[in-house]
C-alpha cells in the first residue's frame, strides 16, 4: 500500500518570499536588503550575560510561563512606558518568538467559521494562521500610499461572525504607525462587542521622529480583549534567538497557556536569565528608536540620488520605495531583476497581499551596517 497522503490544510501556501529572496541573494552574492534581519553584531553585553547564565547552571527548563525575573522586568517596563499595571505572573507569557505568540493567540480564540479582520499588506504568517484554525480572513486594504486604516470600511465589514481584528504597529512592510486617533476608532468599534484584538507589536521601540508608540498596553480596556505580541529577536538584533512574549488579561492568558503548554511548554532559559538582567538598564530599550532612525536616515539620504521614490517610514526595519520613474514591470519581476543585474535583494510588496495586488512598490530593510546600506545605495542609484 502507498504511504498515506496529506490533504493539505494550507493548499495555497508556498515558500515565504523572505526565504525565496534570501536564497536568491545568497546564490548570487547580492547585498540582502530583503528579509528583515540585522547584519551587524548584537550587543556584546547581552551575549556575555547568556554565556554567564549557562556557566552558572541555568540550563534546565524555565517556568512554563517564562522566567519570573524576566516577566517582572517587563511589567516594570510597561508601567514606565505606558502607565499600565500588568501582573507579571498572570498576564505575561514568554514565547519562542512573536510569530508563535500570534499563532497561539489565534489558536486560543478561533473556531471554524469565525471571521478575522486583517489589514493588507499583511505580515505573511497572519492569514495561514487564521486558515489553519478553520477561520476566515476578512481582508481590508490599508489606503495606498499612506497605508492608513480605512475605519469606515472596517465598520462595514464587521458581521456577527467577526471574532477578531488584527493590528500591527509599527507596521511590516510599510513602516506606518497607528495614531491615538486610530486607537480611538478601534475602541469605538469593539466597544459592546465580543471582538478580540490581536496586536502585533514586534517593532515596539523601533519608532521614529519622537512619535509615541500606541501600544494596546496604553489602553487597559482594550488589553482586556487583546493578545499583544512582542519579539526580543527583532528589537535586540538577534532574530535567530526566536524569543518573544505575549501579554493579555489574566483570564485570556490562562486559556493561551493551555495551548502553549502542550506545544512549546517553556523557552530557552539562559537567554531569559540574560534578558532579565539586561532590561534592568532602561537605556537598553530607550536607545533603540534613535539607533534605528539613524539607519533609516542614512539609507534615505544615500537613496536621494536614485530614481526610486520613498514612502514615509515611521517605524520598523523597513522603508518602501515606489519605482514608477524606473519601470512598469511587476514588483516581483523588478525585485528579481535588481537582485540579478544589480546585486541588491529586496521584497516585492505584492507578496503581502493574498490577491497579489501590485502597487509597484518594493521594501528595503535598513536594519543593516552602514557599509551594507552604502554598498546597496551605490548600486541602486545606477538603475
Ligand atoms: N510580526 C511581524 C510583523 C514581523 O515582521 C515579524 C518578524 N519576523 C514577526 C511578527 C515575528 O517575529 P519573531 O521572529 O520573533 O517570530
Ligand atoms: N519579519 C521578517 C521580514 O519581514 C522575516 C521573518 C521571516 O523570514 N519569517 O522580513
Characterization of this structure:
The chain is of the alpha/beta class and 383 residues long. It folds into two domains: 17-42 and 286-380, Aspartate Aminotransferase, domain 1; 61-281, Aspartate Aminotransferase, domain 2, CATH 3.40.640. It has helices at 17-28, 44-55, 68-82, 98-109, 126-131, 151-157, 180-190, 220-223, 232-235, 250-261, 269-278, 283-286, 288-303, 331-342, 370-380, and strands spanning 31-32, 92-95, 115-120, 136-141, 162-168, 196-200, 226-231, 244-247, 309-310, 318-322, 344-345, 347-348, 361-365. The strands form three sheets. Strands 2-8-7-6-5-3-4 form a seven-stranded mixed sheet, with helices on both faces. A four-stranded antiparallel sheet has the order 9-10-13-12. Strand 5, helix 7 (180-190) and strand 6 form a beta-alpha-beta unit. The radius of gyration is 21 Å and the shape is globular. Bound molecules: 4'-deoxy-4'-aminopyridoxal-5'-phosphate (PMP) and glutamine. The site of 4'-deoxy-4'-aminopyridoxal-5'-phosphate (PMP) has 15 residues, from helix 4 and helix 9. Glutamine binds next to loops.
Amino acid at each position: 500500500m502507498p504511504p498515506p497522503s496529506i490533504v493539505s490544510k494550507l493548499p495555497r501556501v508556498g515558500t515565504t518570499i523572505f526565504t525565496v529572496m534570501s536564497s536568491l541573494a545568497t546564490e548570487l552574492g547580492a547585498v540582502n536588503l530583503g528579509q528583515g534581519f540585522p547584519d551587524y553584531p548584537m550587543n556584546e553585553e547581552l551575549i556575555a550575560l547568556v554565556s554567564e547564565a549557562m556557566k552558572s547552571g541555568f540550563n534546565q527548563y524555565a517556568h512554563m510561563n517564562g522566567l519570573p525575573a524576566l516577566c517582572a522586568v517587563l511589567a516594570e517596563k510597561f508601567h514606565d512606558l505606558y502607565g499600565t499595571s500588568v501582573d507579571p505572573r498572570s498576564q505575561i507569557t514568554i514565547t519562542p518568538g512573536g510569530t508563535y505568540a500570534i499563532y497561539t493567540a489565534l489558536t486560543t480564540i478561533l473556531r471554524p467559521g469565525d471571521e478575522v479582520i486583517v489589514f493588507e499588506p499583511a505580515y505573511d504568517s497572519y492569514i495561514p494562521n487564521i486558515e489553519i484554525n478553520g477561520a476566515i480572513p476578512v481582508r481590508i486594504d490599508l489606503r495606498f500610499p499612506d497605508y492608513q486604516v480605512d475605519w469606515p470600511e472596517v465598520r462595514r465589514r464587521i458581521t456577527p461572525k467577526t471574532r477578531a481584528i488584527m493590528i500591527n504597529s509599527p507596521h511590516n512592510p510599510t513602516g506606518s504607525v497607528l495614531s491615538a486617533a486610530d486607537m480611538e476608532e478601534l475602541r469605538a468599534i469593539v466597544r459592546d462587542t465580543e471582538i478580540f484584538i490581536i496586536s502585533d507589536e514586534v517593532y515596539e521601540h523601533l519608532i521614529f521622529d519622537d512619535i509615541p508608540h500606541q501600544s494596546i498596553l496604553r489602553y487597559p480596556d482594550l488589553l482586556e480583549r487583546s493578545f499583544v505580541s512582542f519579539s526580543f529577536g527583532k528589537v535586540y538584533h538577534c532574530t535567530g534567538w526566536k524569543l518573544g512574549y505575549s501579554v493579555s488579561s489574566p483570564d485570556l492568558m490562562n486559556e493561551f497557556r493551555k495551548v502553549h503548554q502542550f506545544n512549546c511548554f517553556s523557552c530557552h532559559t539562559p537567554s531569559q536569565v540574560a534578558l532579565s538582567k539586561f532590561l534592568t538598564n532602561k537605556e537598553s530599550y530607550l536607545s533603540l528608536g534613535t539607533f534605528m532612525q539613524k539607519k533609516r536616515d542614512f539609507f534615505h539620504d544615500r537613496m536621494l540620488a536614485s530614481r526610486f521614490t520613498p514612502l514615509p517610514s515611521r517605524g520598523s526595519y523597513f522603508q518602501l520605495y515606489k519605482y514608477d520613474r524606473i519601470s512598469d514591470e511587476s514588483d516581483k519581476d523588478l525585485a528579481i531583476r535588481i537582485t540579478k543585474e544589480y546585486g541588491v535583494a529586496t521584497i516585492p510588496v505584492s507578496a503581502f497581499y493574498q490577491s497579489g495586488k501590485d502597487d509597484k512598490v518594493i521594501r528595503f530593510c535598513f536594519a543593516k551596517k552602514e557599509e551594507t546600506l552604502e554598498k546597496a545605495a551605490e548600486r541602486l542609484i545606477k538603475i
